[in-house]
Specification:
By secondary structure, the protein is an alpha/beta fold. Helices cover 22% and strands 28% of the residues. Strand 18 and strand 19 form a beta hairpin.
């Protein structure tokens, strides 16, 4: 099994593997291209995002700058919107539904590292996928940690750190993020 396969399946992998290093360089080159592309040429920007992401739904918009590790693990639905300075560490899948809005500076992490110092010294890493449902709004400067699932019709307040799954139809805020209100479905 290749290191890339191990990575995308959430197993321990060597991030210094030559194929993975080249894939990160490719992704960062495409991000640089996107981030420097003129705002007045949306069709060109759309082509760049389609080249970067694993899949992207119609009507999606992404403000620059934007950064990610690989890009091919990112899948967004229709009418997705991400404001400035979003970062996706996509060693595993990031699946985002339709009509999702991200405020500025939202970070979505799938990458994780061992807690044990001896295991960390091996330089192996792993990841856990992140799934975000439909009709979700994540406020600015929030962090979505590895392995999180957020249901449909969820509002995450700005500067929140999501450390546990969130069910559908809730408003959640804080560090750590906690549910403060239930919404009609």
């Amino acid at each position: 099994m290749s290191e890339k396969q191990k990575m995308t399946e959430g197993q321990a992998y060597n991030p210094y593997d030559e194929e993975l290093v080249l894939l990160r360089i490719k992704s960062r080159t495409i991000c640089d291209l996107y981030n420097s592309s003129p705002q007045d040429n949306p069709s060109n920007r759309w082509k760049i995002i389609k080249r970067l992401f694993g899949s992207v739904g119609e009507g999606s918009k992404l403000n620059s700058p934007f950064y990610c590790d690989y890009g091919f693990n990112i899948h967004v639905g229709k009418n997705f919107y991400a404001n400035y300075n979003c970062i996706f560490l996509d060693v595993c899948a990031i699946r985002i539904g339709d009509n999702v809005m991200l405020g500025p500076g939202v970070h979505i992490y799938t990458a994780t590292h061992p807690i044990d110092k001896d295991e960390r010294r091996t330089k192996l890493e792993s990841g856990k996928k992140v799934i975000i449902g439909n009709d979700v709004w994540i406020g600015g400067n929030s962090v979505i940690n590895p392995g999180i699932t957020i249901g449909n019709n969820v509002v995450v307040g700005s500067c929140s750190v999501v450390t546990k799954d969130l069910p559908s139809n809730v408003v959640a805020v804080g560090n750590p993020c906690r549910i403060i209100r239930h919404l009609k479905g």
